[in-house]
């Protein structure tokens, strides 16, 4: 879990665009970020298993 200071610092306006770091909207995690959903892999998996993300189903073959 990201510290509050890092999350607040990431929200500030930076001088250069490439200095921004994608962070999970729910927990603030920076690694394992999924661009399509705007969250980290851990939050994505937990919400997908609960069925709270529309259009995402568990695969089976």
From TrEMBL:
It comes from the Bacteria. One of its GO terms (biological process) is translation. Its cofactor is Zn(2+). Transmembrane segments: none annotated. Zn(2+) binds at residues 24, 27, 40, 43. One of its GO terms (cellular component) is small ribosomal subunit. InterPro entries: Ribosomal_uS14 (IPR001209), Ribosomal_uS14_bact (IPR023053), Ribosomal_uS14_CS (IPR018271), Ribosomal_uS14_sf (IPR043140). Part of the 30S ribosomal subunit. Contacts proteins S3 and S10. Binds 16S rRNA, required for the assembly of 30S particles and may also be responsible for determining the conformation of the 16S rRNA at the A site. Belongs to the universal ribosomal protein uS14 family. Zinc-binding uS14 subfamily. NCBIfam families: PRK08061.1 (NF005974). This is Small ribosomal subunit protein uS14. It comes from Candidatus Atribacter allofermentans. The lineage of its organism: Bacteria, Pseudomonadati, Atribacterota, Atribacteria, Atribacterales. The gene is rpsZ.
């Amino acid at each position: 879990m990201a510290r509050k200071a890092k999350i607040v610092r990431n929200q500030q306006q930076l001088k250069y665009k490439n200095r921004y770091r994608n962070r999970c909207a729910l927990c603030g995690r920076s690694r394992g970020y999924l661009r399509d959903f705007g969250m980290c892999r851990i939050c994505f998996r937990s919400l997908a298993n609960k069925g709270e993300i529309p259009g995402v189903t568990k695969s089976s073959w």
